[in-house]
Design a protein that fits this description.
Layout (H helix, E strand, L loop, with lengths): L1 E4 L6 E9 L2 E5 L5 E5 L3 H10 L5 E5 L10 E3 L2 E5 L4 H20 L10 H21 E10 L6 H8 L4 E5 L7 H4 L5 H8 L4 E4 L2 H14 L3 E3 L2 E4 L7 E7 L6 H9 L1 H13 L5 E8 L6 H13 L8 E8 L6 H21 L7 E4 L5 H10 L2 E4 L8 H9 L6 E5 L12 E3 L4 H13 L2 H17 L2 H15 L1
Parallel strand pairs: 2-5, 2-8, 5-7, 8-9, 9-10, 10-13, 14-15, 14-17, 15-16, 17-18, 18-19
Antiparallel strand pairs: 1-6, 3-4, 6-7, 11-12, 12-13
The chain binds 6-O-phosphono-alpha-D-glucopyranose (G6P).
Length: 475
Amino acid sequence: MWGEEEHLTETRDLVVVANRLPVDIAVDENGRQTIRRSPGGLVSAMEPVLRGTEAAWVGWAGTPGLDLPPFTNDGVHIVPVPLSQEDVAEYYEGFSNATIWPLYHDVITPPEYHREWAEAYRRVNRRFAEAAAAHVAPGGTVWVHDYQLQLVPRLVRELRPDVRIGFFLHIPFPGLELFSQLPWRNEMLRGLLGADLVGFQRAGDASNFRRCARRLAGTHTRGLFVRVNAGTPQERDVRASAFPISLDSAAIEEVARRPEVQARARAIRHELGDPATIMYGVDRLDYTKGIRHRLKAYGELLEEGRLEVPGSILVQVASPSRGNVGAYQVLREEVETTVGRINGDYGKLGHPAIQYLHQNQPWEEMVALYLAADVMLVTALRDGMNLVAKEYVAARFDRGGVLVLSEFAGAADELKQAIIVNPHDIDGLKDAMVRAATMEQFEARRRMGALRRRVMERDVKYWALSFMRALGEAK
Ligand code: G6P
């Protein structure tokens, strides 16, 4: 996997900038390095787009204090940006994940506003911008990703006015009423408006952004465009519009078709006691994902006898995430207490009501679980896209399975043949779960067929190409 170390000044036509590199690198006490794929939707989407290209990827290797020279991984030129313990606490866990993340996800958890965190965010955004500016070829393109780096477009423009700058926000952009809370709202808007193109998951996110730019940054908007520096020699139009992200759906289908993965799916069913219905949820353990609502609905269905153990089982995989952030620690306590209670009340010897795993699963196992699951539960309270929903559809080449999907996930704009739910409406969610578990095969296959047409056609290459094409036109 490891390649040559590169010469520091080598430049590339395309430089991707994201908080995380596609791989996390950890170092043990003996100095041995281990690499694993980084968590989350951003890396799942971008990694196949860049594999084998001549692009560079600027990001953090996931371990505080680790300072690595640039290297090549799966053909991508990796430029690590170091973060100290203090940067991780203030910029990553603090401003990114305890200020912006909750604010942009409808304040499900209250955001915290601390001036030292904002200062750390500025400092670290500058470091990323400098690394990008040093690695992009003359007239090249810098593509900046996500909420951790909203100041980077403007900083790159100051350092390298010759390059094209795109920004893509993987999470929702809030409405004016919520965004206005942010003490640094103007700085954030001006940071983003440093780009030539600002992309969002949903049309609603893009229109929220344009409204904020108009009302809070004093700019004019026309259609999809925001005019900055009007009446000065620096006058420019920034396009702000939706590019719903996707994944490498053909690659997922290919894994799902492998005989050993299908055999594993059958073995999973068997190991779970061959229940009539396997319900499945897989998420980063995050309060935006609606895991508590899902558990509540499932517990009530067991209590009312509408579902029974061992006839049904809920498999919930929660991958560990942001464990140093208070709200994530509280969530973990609540989820694990609830799972324990439901299992205590409704489990049978050898047949738990819920099989809960707080672990990362290998990729083939994930796909086998998709194939084994009769009902896929995506009940996010707010989610930029939710690629799990699309992964499930891409894996179901057999047109089996039913997707229950929250209207608050970006995926709901496209996956209209799913059973769409409002996860706050527990009774509605319960009805949807029962409906999914008892759906006629004919109807389930018809719906999955329609979902698959969308997901197989609009894959991640389509997404990346549409963004790059719009960026080319925007400059
Ligand atoms: C979401 C975000 C990504 C982030 C990922 C994992 O998908 O949009 O920017 O990388 O979650 O979160 P983490 O905090 O572990 O990077």
